[in-house]
Amino acid sequence: MIDAHSLYGPLPDPAADAGYHEHPRRVGFFTDTSVCIGCKACEVACKEWNNVPEDGLNLLGMSFDNTGMLGANSWRHVAFIEQDRRLGVQDVELEGLPTGPSASDQDAAVVAEALRHTKRGGGQLGTSPADLPFPSLPVVDGDGQPGSRDGLRWLMASDVCKHCTHAACLDVCPTGALFRTEFGTVVVQQNICNGCGYCVSACPYGVIDRRPDDGRAAKCTLCYDRLHGGLEPACAKACPTKSIQFGPLDELRERAAGRLSDLHEAGVPEARLYGEDPGDGVGGDGAFFLLLDEPEAYGLPPDPVVPTRNLAATWKATGLAAAALAAAAVSAFAGRPGRPGRGRR
Amino acid sequence: MKTREDLAVPKADFRSYYGRPVLKPPVWEWKIPAYLFTGGLAAGSALLAAGADLTGRPALRRATRLGSVGGLTASMVLLVADLGRPERFHHMLRVAKPTSPMSIGTWILVAFSPGSVLPAADELVPARWLPRDRWPGRLLTLAARPAGLSAALVAPGVASYTAALLAQTAVPAWNEARWELPFVFTGSAAASGAGLGLLAAPVTEAGPARRLAAVGAAGELAASRLIERNPALFARAYTTGRAHRMRRWSELLTAGGAVLAVTAGRRRRAAAAVAGLALLGGSALQRFGVFEAGQASTKDPRYVVVPQRERLDRRRLDRRAGDDDGDLRPAGPSRSG
After folding, report:
1. Rounded CA gap, B203 and B180, in Å?
2. Separation between Cα atoms, residue B262 and residue B264, nearest integer Å
3. How many CA atoms lie within 13 A of A201 on its CB side?
4. Residue B102 is nearest to which of A79, A196, A217, comparing CB atoms?
5. ipTM value
């Protein structure tokens, strides 16, 4: 069944679009970052269950985040962001205390400088070690004056493959290794992937990557094996605060809408959903989020678009250029008979 | 000490997660831009070879037939070597997907190969081994022309699909240049094939190569300028850093080579050879420059965040203007309905 929105736009049933006649309901994740406590149990449980290799031991100076980003060897990634502001109406009882600024910005800047000079400029995090010389992090010399900081919030968010409705990685895969499952999720078949790397450049979220030692692409499978056994994915199972919720996508969307209005009523107006809108650039995410800041603060693209939205334009431009080349070649031979080159001297 | 704001050039007018990339930089290495060049060379050469065959230019025909098969062979080696699992290269032949320019490209190369290999075999295999008056030899000679024509028919696809391959990614510098890149690449392919013809054929036979060089170079340079003049942020990836330096040299070599080809190159073999070398060098640098621009645009989150944030804010403003209630919720993708 091919829908008018097979390539772009709202698509109610991606599994049916992929050719499944009878299939279970589409499942996904709702990651409510407002209750994430940064325990990283999801990262560990994912590695344990899926036998994901280590991604290198790094000291990144990014608060408590030493994973860096999602990659071939990190299928869950917990982001940590320290901010000098309050969360909602909470009182962090800093007023009047001698508090210096947070060290994390300066630590991050030191590491960032070293990271920028590595081959993939930090993009290798989550897949392989960054190989930084051990950074010497400066001691922050805060002025220690009372009232130098009256707010503090620590944002934590567990990132994961979005299992897009329109998945760029799947669209561009030239071997068919990436496929749409009956659950509406997107999975790499390890016995098919030949490591061409096209999916890595196609993903608008920077999720999927190639393992340098193994040569194949790898990413979250939404625990395809556990789904077959009627179990929830390992990360959701391990999450102690229900920040990671697993279930049928339409139920999760309802639950998220309720949680969002609760938070707005409770005085957290900055709460917003990310990736839940079927009208967005990827047709909505199978794994969506409740965030407390702009998506880019978490390293998420603010308005990602699947490259296939422009597929027709791309092929049109390509065809025109090919026609122009053919015309140029024909005219190079047909044009101007009797001119030098044709005649013999 | 530098702060995070200082590190981001030119000024941090956007937010990001510790200044880190949002996208994964392509895992492709030098082999892919090298293939972009050799593939283009194979295509440009095949076009000239078919024309030279039809119009009776034996030296130009021989040089470009060999250039076509040489470019094709190098391309195959580079493409397979760049795979994470080279022994699985044939998995590309499991499917044909119009959404994947790499898949379409695989089939284009499959269609191109026999027409590139057979005519070159006719040029290369000496009559001593394969007498042309016996049937196997006669068959090869008979097949050479139609085979060469079939390659010429597919060649524009070989030259252009690689632009679609780069454009169908999330890499800002490639994706945003989807209208111009195919013309840059076909122009570059024409210039490199013509460069080979100028280098290897006598001036009396190289007329079509000179004309193709001029047209190809003009097309490539014009499309390339269109990319650089684009006011959108992605163009900065082409006009700064290593990509910029490589593409400036490419422009000089391509323009210089084309001008030399149609002036002194019409009479003097040495001038034609220099022009040919310049065109080949210009084409190779163009491919490496475009590749480098793409890499740079993934490593700096600015190229991802800034245009997307602007798009989002504009959409929100539009929605608010059309909605008297005034959706005053703070930033963030608002829920539809």
Report:
1. 33
2. 7
3. 28
4. A196
5. 0.91
